[in-house]
DNA sequence: GTCTATACTAAGATAGAC
DNA sequence: GTCTATCTTAGTATAGAC
């Protein structure tokens, strides 16, 4: 049984951090968005950074799960990478405010918390490298720099959070389809 | 004749904002990095936001110039886009701290300053769309969504600033070459 | 153009009642 | 578990001497 107040505070903090940045957000602002007094924050979260870590952990875990589940779909390397990129872009578009916080406020975490998050990030990059390597092995992808290319493919999705606004020119699904297509085209062998 | 102190403060602010975020940076920190007292800041910049705007303006102008000059190189659409992406990625890698500030602290600007910067951003995206459109016209590129694809191509470069560290695994030139190759591959027509 | 000193405001976090 | 009230610290910005 979880306490709803704890989650309401996390949600309020996501909005505030995404809008104003972690450093510029006050605990009073978070409390007021959650409909509570400033003091109530500290019943549920020891510090402001604790709130940031809760957001970052939940966000990275969700994104990693999304990527992992998408990797299980698709029988061929092309289908697998397309599925991963599509799902990853849709996730970042549908959770663009959470995404902005987890991507841009990494440096505001304590060293201990940073280490936990860095490990999740490494696992995401590893998932993509594995998918690319499989395609190279089967001869359907041509990749010079595996690490750099995997990072570039993920960049298409991650960079969404910098500018995406719900209700804008593209839906999450449209962006997912566009990025999946572009990613596969990046990987296909050059014509001889 | 410019005052060196003004520029020293801007440079100090770039370091501080990139490291801690705009909201979490104190004017005392900026002053101390520039080797001055807190009061000296206000002789050269009216407010902390004024410093941010100076950084953002200079950064966006430099990036736009880089993109424009690169677009003049290359006789064919493929060479032109490769030149633009290479130069844009090299710029973001060589100025990753400035890039981080200008990309991530856009929302911290005043509405008036935001409008100025937004205009420069629109012009960058327009430059890339023009380059893609030229290739489509000549039949060497196949692009479904011009706006989305131009943004995705630029994302490869911009997203560098999120993780790039000087002295890391890749040099700016290596990343420029990688991204130029990936961008051109994204645009080439699918095999029939 | 830089300093020391400080006014003024607001931040993070806690105490103690209910 | 939430509140009001408040402690303590630190922030932005300014005044006035040099």
Distance between the termini of chain A: 61 Å
Are there runs of chain A of 5+ residues with pLDDT below 50, and where? none
Name the chain pair with the biggest interface and residue counts per chain: A-B, 39 and 39 residues
Global geometry of chain A: elongated
The SSE string of chain A, one letter per element, is: HHHHHHHHHH
Average pLDDT level of chain A? 96
Oligomer: homodimer
Radius of gyration of chain A over all CA atoms, rounded: 19 Å
Specify the CATH homologous superfamily of the largest domain in chain A: Tetracycline Repressor, domain 2
Structural class category of chain A: mainly alpha
List keywords for this structure.
homodimer, Arc Repressor Mutant, subunit A, elongated, DNA-binding, 192 residues, Tetracycline Repressor, domain 2, mainly alpha
Fold and architecture overview:
- Two copies of one chain form a homodimer.
- With 192 residues, the first copy, chain A, is mainly α.
- The first copy, chain A, folds into two domains: 1-45, Homeodomain-like (Arc Repressor Mutant, subunit A), CATH 1.10.10; 47-186, Tetracycline Repressor, domain 2 (Orthogonal Bundle), CATH 1.10.357.10.
- In chain A, 74% of the residues lie in helices and 0% in strands.
- Chain A contains ten helices and no strands.
- The first copy, chain A, has helices spanning 4-20, 27-33, 38-44, 48-72, 77-94, 96-104, 111-137, 146-158, 160-163, 172-187.
- Chain A is elongated, with a radius of gyration of 19 Å.
- Chain A binds chain B through residues 19-25, 103-105, 107-108, 144-145, 147-149, 151-152, 155-156, 158-159, 162-163, 169-170, 174-175, 178-179, 181-182, 185-188, 190-191, and chain B through 19-25, 103-105, 107-108, 144-145, 147-149, 151-152, 155-156, 158-159, 162-163, 169-170, 174-175, 178-179, 181-182, 185-188, 190-191.
- Chain A binds a DNA duplex (18 and 18 nucleotides) through residues 3, 5, 26-28, 36-44, 47-48.
